[in-house]
Write a structure and sequence with these properties.
This protein is mainly beta. Helices cover 9% and strands 40% of the residues. It contains one helix and eleven strands. The strands form three sheets. The chain has a five-stranded antiparallel beta sheet, with no helix packed on it. Strand 7 and strand 8 form a beta hairpin.
Length: 151
């Protein structure tokens, strides 16, 4: 899962209903947020898009991540999520509205469990209202380049 402030995106090019290019402001890129294996989830239902990522344990690192996302979310976030079928969704951008309806809500749930063997995780859910399903990236867009800064 990659997340970036909406203001750091310069342009998104959509060709035949598929994202064919994403250009950033100078030096900006998506920041990589690794979810626990098989624990991320993307849903779209009646105009609401949710992206859930699970961080591996309650602690200072997870707390910093949540605070960082909550601080920037009111100004807008855009995310990419690579699904288990190999497709990559762009969330927080639509062809009709551009970057005017980004992700603005971040919800989190910290669960440390009681016993040493209990689950220990932080669920972070990013939410946006979009009137259309998310766009997907073209196969020609190389995911690695979206995490590499250019001058």
């Amino acid at each position: 899962i990659g997340i970036i402030p909406a203001a750091d995106i310069d342009t998104v090019t959509v060709t035949e209903g598929v994202v064919s290019a994403i250009k950033f402001k100078s030096g900006k890129t998506f920041k990589d947020y690794q979810s626990e294996l098989d624990q991320a989830e993307f849903t779209y239902n009646n105009g609401e898009t949710n992206l859930l990522l699970r961080l591996n344990r309650v602690g200072k690192t997870a707390s910093i991540v949540v605070a960082e996302l909550e601080e920037v979310a009111p100004c807008g976030l855009v995310a990419i999520a690579q699904l288990n079928n190999g497709e990559t969704a762009l969330i927080g951008y639509t062809e009709e509205f551009g970057l005017t309806r980004p992700i603005t809500t971040v919800e989190s749930e910290f669960n440390s469990g009681k016993a040493l063997t209990d689950d220990n995780y932080v669920d972070v859910t990013l939410k946006t209202s979009q009137v259309v399903p998310p766009l997907f990236l073209s196969d020609s867009v190389k995911i690695d380049t979206l995490f590499t800064a250019t001058a």
